[in-house]
Amino acid sequence: MHSELESGLTLYRERAYLLGGYVGMFGGVFSHTDLQAPEYPVLYIETPKGQTSWHIHPDDKDCFDGLKVPTVQEYPWDGHSTEEKYMRIQALNLLIPKMTYAKPEYGNP
Length: 109
Hints:
The protein has one domain. It contains three helices and four strands. It has helices at residues 4-7, 11-26, 82-95, and strands at residues 29-31, 42-47, 50-55, 71-72. The longest helix has 16 residues, at 11-26. The protein is globular. The N and C termini lie far apart (40 Å).
């Protein structure tokens, strides 16, 4: 039996796993606020650099199991564009302290 990692992940599932890291740091909320795609929950994460949000495929919600992400009826979107969201992520990544470094033989920044 092949594990999910051996058989290949979709890009959206990989993204969901990575977003779990931000949810672990800042919390998150699922809401079905997009009337054009009501079957896809929107994951909202409020960060020190502003709100971010992504549509999550229903099959990928299990990537957030154990992180206690509530689902709420309505959640206020701040109107950010995709470009603004990723500018916030870029600024946020500069704030997050390194918890570890590469192996010493590869050098530290």
